[in-house]
Amino acid sequence: MVADPPPSSSPPPAPGGRVRAAISVVLALSALLGGGAAAYGVLRSAAPRALNEFVAPSRNTWSTDWLNGAEEAWSYGGPGSPSAHEEDRVRLIRVGSKLVRLIIWSESTLITVLQESERGVETLWEQELDHALPEAGVWKNWVVDGGDLIDLDTQERVRAPWPAGATVSASHGVAIACEGLTCTLWTSRYDERWTTTIESSNSTIEVGLGLLNGNRYALAMGDLNLQRSDKATTELLVMDLEDGSTRSMGQITGSALIAPLSDGWLIGVSDKSEDEERVSLYSPDGSPLGDARRDGSKDYGTFPYSPTPISAEQARAWIESADTSWAPSTMTVSAEATSGACSATLLHGGSTLSMPGVNSLTRRNRAAADDGAGCRLLPVTYTTMMGTGPLAEVREVRDHDLYLHLVDPGSGGESGAIRVGDISSWGVASYGGEMIVYGNSGHLTAYRPKPAA
């Protein structure tokens, strides 16, 4: 049942705008903008606290418990059939033991707050807004609704410290509100840490707090929906959360791959028209460390895997020279042309994983003939796979459904195929020992590792 909005002394929020930018990040299952697996705490505006007390790593990792296989823990229904509108989207955010599901339609938003326990989930409350939120966000114990904050426990509304029209990025106990190119960081409703005006070719700025480097540096970009266009461009910047200073990393498109390194950033470009792969490397503050290009004379069939983020020099050694000598483990992939796709065979720890259809390890050359000739490997993509803990993540498509495999590079262990959802509408949220999959319908399915036999 949809609850009526509680009375509020604050004015109604401004109508929502269009979908904001969400660049494609091949990094575990986390998104660049918002989210993250860190728990949120209610932080009061007492004495000033160090900024690193408010931020925490959000890197999702997979434990070896998943090698026992996955089983459904619970499911929760959506309000209707999957959306037919491109701009509709679903977002799931964990706040302690609560789950906040936001379904954003073209002219309205459905907020559902769930309480999770070992027995499953139950609805705490549900409320439908008469406008589309420009971005789904939770800050501390509030859902961000323009210039209002909705309490997750009581549904009470309080005024946010920023105006209703600001672009807000919230995660890890901090919120950054930007009006055009002027941004302010808040650690509570009353604690403004800094305000800065950014020099950028972008007309607006959105900060990616879900992907931090050293708990200090975040990526920022303009308000462009890059995920749906390989040709749209935006200026990518690194923001120092200590003072709001930024450094430009140049223009990127929607085909860019981004990964945090142990000592910086990797921006990968996979040019679909030229079948070329290259990376640009940067220090944590965005200082350039040079480019690295794939060497066409090298064999990239055996690729490295590290459970922790790799360094810029390790990434360079792999891309330029196919060097895996530094890696804790390796896997070997081969590709074969099939009807309309490139199948992949992955060797890991003496076991073989066969993926006959579209997968995340191979790609058909753009210039390939219609008979299917011309599959290639993806060394830049393999670089962005690293850092997800003991298990690596591999994806494949079967009959228009996306499946996830978690494999142990050093043994024959593998989770088995875990169905995520329809390839045109899917999402994954990983929280500790639980994986929740969902689509545009809003239906949630939670998986946990099977108990050891």
UniProtKB/TrEMBL annotation:
Species per Swiss-Prot/TrEMBL record: Actinomyces timonensis
Keyword entries, A-Z: Membrane, Transmembrane, Transmembrane helix
Record-annotated membrane-spanning stretches: 20-43
Region: Disordered, residue numbers: 276-308
Name of the protein: Secreted protein
